[in-house]
């Protein structure tokens, strides 16, 4: 990768979850959502199942795991969420936010008529009620954990065609009185605002409240036509980094500060080698512990789920420098 992880980041010496930990058919385990619920850590993770050896994928489901420390995970015997019918191919990249004691899950959906973003609610991870599904060309939705100014608020990444044939996707907010009807959309951050992106920027993990503002990760993508084979596919020309930013507590469409350099890059062997798409960091979970430690969960190379930690004040400093 062009950049390295920030010195404030401490990575674990192994992924927190990989296909070897899954008691059912599994291959690529990544892009998980994580939260604390009823006294435990909960993770929902993307499982693109198939054969690691043959580099063949057959389908996608969303698995469930619990943990007492956020590091060692107890994977449940069955996937917890699958969407598949004549219209819908799959749901993936789940994000979790607890609001008023209920767990909301945002996810991306591939359909015959485009990519959509969905929101479901659950109280037990056994039954999910789908509350909304967007029109096509929007995804990477994450919900704020509080009602702000009377509304639920989400970050999202629509996929407009203004860039004429090239990806150039930016981060937006929308709000809703009921999780079903979404509007009042505002641009939060464009690709041009991030020094380590030339292709797209989008939400990462659901934001956490700090005294200085909403602290939130994002993904930032550099595309370079000179990059060639780097993973299972003949060509993979993008590098995905995690960045960190602060948003205004009362109006989260207002940016207070954005890190000038990436927060997390791939630098460990299991993040860089033999992955489906190497050089991809995709943050999806963030937990602020009472001690000030921030646990950040991210998919690495679209193959493993990993965790890193940092001190909340160091993260805030990176946004304000
Ligand atoms: C994005 C999404 C993510 C994935 C990333 C890198 O567009 O599909 O699920 O991690 O690409 O492949």
For the structure shown, list the relevant keywords.
321 residues, mainly beta, Tachylectin-2, Chain A, 5-stranded antiparallel sheet, 4-stranded antiparallel sheet, 4% helix, globular, binds beta-D-mannopyranose
Walk me through this protein's architecture.
This protein is mostly beta strands and 321 residues long. It has a single domain (15-320), classed as Tachylectin-2, Chain A (5 Propeller), CATH 2.115.10.20. The protein has 2 helices and 21 strands. It has helices spanning 269-272, 312-320; strands at 10-11, 28-37, 40-51, 56-67, 74-75, 88-99, 102-111, 114-122, 128-133, 138-143, 152-158, 171-176, 183-189, 200-203, 208-210, 213-223, 238-247, 255-258, 281-288, 293-300, 304-311. The strands form 5 sheets. Strands 14, 15, 16, 17 and 18 form a 5-stranded antiparallel sheet that branches. Strands 1-21-20-19 form a 4-stranded antiparallel sheet. A hairpin with an 8-residue loop joins strand 10 and strand 11. The longest helix is centred in the last third of the chain and has 9 residues, at 312-320. It is globular, with a radius of gyration of 18 Å. The two termini are 23 Å apart. The model has no long low-confidence stretch (mean pLDDT 96). The chain binds beta-D-mannopyranose. Beta-D-mannopyranose binds next to loops.
